[in-house]
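notes to self, project folder thing:

trying the whole complex as one job this time. last attempt i did each chain seperately and stitching them together was a nightmare. two parts in total, labels are on each line so i dont mix them up again. if this works i'll redo the older ones the same way
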Amino acid sequence: MNRNGLPFLLPMLALSLAGFVLPLALLGVFSFVDTSGSPTLANYQRLFADPFVLSVLVDTIALGFKVVALTTLIALPITLLYWHASPALRRVIVFLTLLPMLTSNVVRTFAWIVILGRQGPISQALVELGLAPAPRSLLFNETALVVVLAQIELPLLVLPVMAVIARSDGALSAAAQTLGAGPWRILVTVLLPMMAPGFLAGWVLVFAGATTSYVTQSVIGGARLIYLPQFVYREVGVLFQWPSAAAVAFVLLAATSLIMLAMTAAARHPRLAGHA
Amino acid sequence: MTSALSRRQFAAGLASLPALGVFSTRQARAAGSVVAAAFPNAWEDAYRKIVAPLVAAQGTQLVVSPALAQDQLAKLLASPGKPSFDAVLMSPGQTAEAVSRGLIEKIDPSKLKNWDKLEASARTEYGPNVTVEINGIAYNPTMVPKPAGYKDLFENKAYDGKVAWIGFGSNTAAMAWVEIAKLYGGGEDNMEPVFKLLASHMPKVGAIANNGSAQMTMFQQGEIGVFMASTGNVARLKSLGVPCEFVHPISGSPSVPVTIHLAKGAANPEGVYQYMDAAISAEAQSKLALPPTEMIPTNSDVPLTPGIKSFVSEDDLKKLVYPDWAKINAKRAAWTAEFDRVVRK
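result (full assembly):
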C-alpha cells in the first residue's frame, strides 16, 4: 500500500468504525446480557435449544443456496452470450443487466406481486391454456420467493462474470477449437474455469443479498415463510426482546460470514482463480 | 487537478462540522419543526395534507414520519429520553406499554385551545384522542358473499382460500383474535381455542400477512377477498376504486381510540402542542371526516358525515366492544411468538 495515501483513507476508516464496527460491537454486547443488563449466555442457549429457531436458521441458509443455484442457471447463458457477442451487443447486454438495478428493490418486489398474483399474467395464461381450472395465486411459497430473489440478485452475479470475461483473451476458445475441442469441451475446460472467479465473487454477493432481503422475503413469502431477518424484526419490533434479537442477528451474521469466507477462500484457490 | 484546499484545512473543516450541528438532527429539528409519527398510507397522507398546513400556519414545520404503532413503541424504546419522534400516534394497547415504560408524558390541556371542544371521552391525561377506529370485517363483494361474523369465515366454505389474517403485532388483528377466542370458548386471557382453530384451518387460509398494509395490497390485487379492517381501511380502498365493503361482526365491533402523545424528551414540546391542537381542531377533523379517510371526529363541533353514517349506524355504536388491553398486553408477546409457530409452513 502507498503509505502517502493513508490520510485519504482516514475519513472512510473513521466512518466504518463509527457507523459499522462500533454498533456491531454494541450489538455483540447486547447479545451477552439479559434484559436487566447482567451478563449471560442464555440468549444463545435459548436459540440453540429451540428447534423453531434452528429450523428458521437452516431454512434461511437453504434459501441462500437455492437462490445462488437458480441465479447461476440463469446467469450462465447470459454470460456465454456476452462471451460470443460483438462489442456493440456486449454494451446492450450490460445495459439490460443494469436496467433493473436502476429501480429500487422494493419496486421490483411489488412488480412481482402483480406478475405472480391471482389476477396476474401467469395465472391467467395457465387458465386460458387449460392448465389450471381457476385463477390461483402463485405467491406466498418458497418457489416463488426463490424465483423473485434470483431475478433481483441476477445482476450481482452477471456483472462480476462479465468483468472477468472482458479482461480475457477472446482467442482462447478459438485456440481450443483449433486444437480439436468441441463446444462442450471448450465450455468445461476453457470458459467455466475462466469465469470461475467471477462466479465465486457473484455467489458471495447473491448469497448475502438473498439471506438478508427482509422486504422481498416478507412481501413475496408472506408471514408463513419465516426467515431470520423477519424473525429478528419480530423479536425487536413486536416482542421487544433485544438481547435475543441481537443473538439471532449475530448467529445470522456468523452463519453467512462463514459461508462467504468459504466461497472467498475457494475463489483464491490457484485453480479457481484462473492461474492453473 | 490542483486544489486550493490543503489537507490540514480539509481536516479542520471536517472537525468543525459537529460544532455546526451538521450531525445533530435533534438540534436541527428543535428550531421550528416537529417530527410526528403517523400510521402509514391513509393516516400519513391525510396528516401531511390536512394537519401539516395548519401547524405550519403557526410557524412550525410538521414532519410526518410513517410508522405502525408497534414500530413507534419499538423506536421510543430504542432511545429513551432522546426519542426519534416528538409526537406519537397510538392506541390503548401501545399507550399502556408506553406509560408503564415512561416513554410518554402527561400533557397540559391548558395549552390546547380546542381541548374543551373534544368529547369528554376523548380527553385523556396523556393526550387527546383524534378519532375512534371501529374494526370489523372488510370483504370484496365481487369475490365473496357478505360475511355474518368471524365464525362464518372459518365455517362457510365460500371463504376458503380467500381470507387473510395477521399476527398479534397488529391492534386490529389482536382485537379480532380476542373476539374469535370468545366465540370459541376462550377470551382475553385464553387464546388456546384460536391456536387450535387456526392450526386445523391453515390449509384453507388465503394468506398470512406481515402487517395491515400488506393485507391491503393483497386485497387490492385480488389475492384475498376478506381481511380484518377498520372503517378507515375500507374508506381508503373504496376511494381507490377497489370493490370493498365493511361489515360489523354480529358479536360486536372491537373499537379503539387513537391518541396523540407527547414523547418524553421531545425536542420541541411546544410544537407538539400546536400539532395536537391542529389535529383536534374542527377545521382538520371536518376534512379528515371526508373520503378517503372518513375518520370519526372527536371534536363535538364536527358532525358525522353521511359517509361515516353509512359505516356506523346508531345501533352499531351501541354494540362497540372495548377490549381489555391490560389483559391482552400481559400475554401479547407470548401469543405473537406462538402465532408464528402455528402458521409457519
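what i see at first glance: Chain A touches chain B through 30 residues (CB under 8 Å).
need to look closer tmrw
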